[in-house]
Design goal:
Layout (H helix, E strand, L loop, with lengths): L3 H10 L7 H7 L11 E4 L3 H5 L3 H12 L5 E7 L2 E6 L1 H15 L13 E5 L14 H16 L3 E5 L7 H13 L2 H6 L1 H15 L5 H14 L3 H25 L17 H9 L3 E4 L2 E5 L7 E5 L7 H16 L3 E5 L5 H13 L8 E4 L4 E3 L14 H19 L6 H17 L8 E3 L1 H4 L7 H18 L1 H7 L13 H23 L3 H20 L7 H25 L8
Parallel strand pairs: 4-5, 4-9, 9-10, 11-12
Antiparallel strand pairs: 1-3, 2-3, 6-7, 7-8
Bound molecules: arginine.
């Protein structure tokens, strides 16, 4: 497919002085107001080198490139060269590319041969998998899909929070107030109850803290009884997490969480010492990062037990040694910004060059309409319940509206879960947001259901056209682009054309919402086309060309939604 920006860059670069090809290309704009052309080039920067007024320069360029067959029209307006792409050539080119590339449309191979680790989800064992975890899980999954689409070899890691002092507390609480039957019957909720109880009791019985610390130390030394309890909590928790991952269609290549590194830490504590980075402070060991404005990082406690940050250091080196990654991406809440800055700095000070290839991708907080969540106070909304409720409510809406589906349960699942995922990926990830049922399931807003509905509408047009006509439209040789040059057809083609670029940008910025918003644009573009034009016309050539554009839109929406981790129902 023609890269118009690049071609325009080349054309203009041959007409001007003092700017490199790259500079010229980066100056080519897409005007907000399409009356100003499909592409525009501002000439202000050239005035100095070319010693001419910008409008004069623009006029010269417009005259020089105006005859190129790529354009329908080239105009000079003030300091700008406004370029209008030849619609027929453009639309034909885009449609053919999508028809040929099919499910690969939007992909590229810029990442070929490069390994990227995406770490996401990483919930804490024996704690609820709540609505707060949806962010890392869904954003990370989408980043994984985007990087895979860009040709990178992605390793998906779930860095389970399956280790640390909280297990001392949990076991301690279990021994004091727990019983086996309750845990077996309802593991996570029971364990959460123990955890909450511990924090209540410790207010009046601070000695419980010492007891919990001792238990954790035993766990660190691999004592049988503590290890077995820990293993049991872990197994039960993983069962619950797996149910949620299955609903979301999410997989991992590795569940090597914090406990995996428990025996790999001494090497690093020693290394920090040898590199004179470790300081003793009241029996504990710290790395002082004050001179970098990053405070002090606690590496081992006074009882010798290691910490979250120590395990992250060990994990990063392990990953480098095991996978030799090009990039190591962590999708973790912005509350942990300091944590990541600290240990990235420590890696750098230790002399690990790959520290620069570790990327923290932070995101904002999700809260509920009636206040924030707190595990300690037991006020949580379970992610599984949210997903189930989304599916149930969607089923009701489908029944109410009398929507035709292939299978109501399947469609309700695709749409209900898709709605939650799409909502999650709609805003810039760094923004805090409030979870609201009304917004998530609004079938008319810029939501998942709206986009899926548009997809199903494309499918329905093709069904109505019949198999033979649809098959004909699938072959670019049969497509006469002159029939799809109307305003809304052309604008739809433009949006479809942008998809590969949008995917690249989303990857560079670790920002799936760029894809989400673009899919909404494509869906709206399709609906405008559908509204403005009669598609199943008598004229066979015209019908084939229009159906080809429908197929292109349908493919672009499907490929885009797949990058968010969403499915596409053929009927709804
Ligand atoms: N388990 C942690 C939590 O729920 C997130 C882990 C993030 N990943 C990491 N490598 N530190 O807060």
């Amino acid at each position: 497919m023609v890269n118009f920006k690049e071609e325009i860059g080349k054309l203009i670069a041959s007409q001007v002085e003092g700017l490199s090809l790259e500079e010229v290309e980066s100056m080519v704009e897409v005007p907000q107001d399409r009356k100003m052309g499909d592409y525009a080039f501002p000439c202000f920067k050239l005035a100095k080198v070319m010693r001419k007024a910008p409008p004069l320069i623009a006029k010269g360029i417009a005259e020089a490139i105006g005859e190129n067959q790529m354009f329908e029209k080239v105009e000079q307006v003030n300091a700008y060269v406004n370029m209008f792409i030849s619609r027929e050539e453009f639309v034909g080119d885009v449609t053919a590319a999508v028809l040929e590339e099919k499910e690969d449309y939007g992909k590229s191979n810029i990442g070929q041969g490069k390994k990227v680790i995406v770490e996401y989800s990483s919930p804490n064992i024996a704690k609820p998998f709540h609505i707060g975890h949806i962010r890392s899980t869904v954003i990370g999954n989408s980043i994984n899909k985007i990087y895979s689409a860009l040709g990178y070899d992605v390793v998906r890691i779930n860095h389970l929070g399956d280790y640390g002092t909280q297990f001392g507390k949990m076991i301690c609480a279990y021994r004091h107030w727990g019983n086996k039957e309750d845990v077996v019957r309802e593991p996570i909720k029971t364990l959460l109850h123990y955890y909450t109880k511990f924090h209540e009791e410790v207010e009046n019985h601070p000695e419980l803290n010492d007891e919990a610390r001792e238990i954790f130390a035993k766990l660190e030394h691999g004592e049988k009884e503590e290890t077995e309890l820990w293993q049991w909590f872990r197994d039960e928790s993983l069962k619950e997490f797996s149910r949620v991952y299955k609903m979301l269609g999410i997989d991992f290549d590795s569940y090597a969480g914090e406990s995996f590194y428990s025996d790999k830490m001494p090497r690093f504590v020693k290394e920090l010492e040898e590199k004179h980075l470790l300081e003793e402070s009241q029996g504990a060991h710290v790395v002082n990062l004050e001179e970098y404005g990053l405070g002090v990082a606690l590496i081992t406690k006074s009882d010798g037990s290691t910490l979250y940050i120590t395990r992250d250091i060990a994990a990063a080196v392990y990953r480098k040694e095991t996978y030799d990654f090009y990039k190591n991406i962590y999708v973790v809440a912005s509350q942990q910004n300091l944590h990541f800055q600290q240990w990235f700095k420590i890696l750098e000070l230790m002399g690990y060059e790959f520290a620069k290839d570790c990327v923290h991708v932070p995101f904002g907080l999700v809260s509920l309409e009636d206040g924030t969540m707190s595990t300690r106070h037991g006020r949580v909304v379970f992610l599984e319940d949210v997903l189930n409720r989304a599916v149930e409510q969607t089923k009701e809406i489908i029944k109410e509206k009398g929507v035709a589906t292939d299978n109501i349960d399947d469609t309700a699942r695709q749409v209900g879960i898709g709605a939650v995922v799409f909502n999650e990926l709609s805003n810039n990830r760094i923004k805090d947001y409030v979870f609201s049922w009304d917004k998530v399931l609004d079938f008319n807003g810029e939501t998942g259901p709206y986009v899926q509905y548009t997809y199903a509408r494309c499918a329905s047009v093709l069904r109505n056209a019949g198999e033979e006509a649809s098959a004909k439209a699938m072959d670019p040789k049969n497509v006469k682009a002159e029939y799809i040059t109307g305003e809304s057809a052309f604008q739809l083609a433009r949006l479809i054309y942008e998809l590969p670029k949008v995917v690249r940008e989303a990857g560079e910025k670790y920002e799936p919402s760029i894809v989400t918003r673009h899919i909404v644009d494509i869906a709206q573009g399709f609906n405008r086309f559908y509204h403005d034009e009669h598609i199943l016309v008598e004229n066979q050539e015209e019908k084939t060309a229009k159906l080809a554009l429908v197929i292109a839109a349908k493919t672009a929406i499907k490929n885009g939604l797949a990058l968010l981790g969403m499915e596409t129902p053929e009927r709804m």
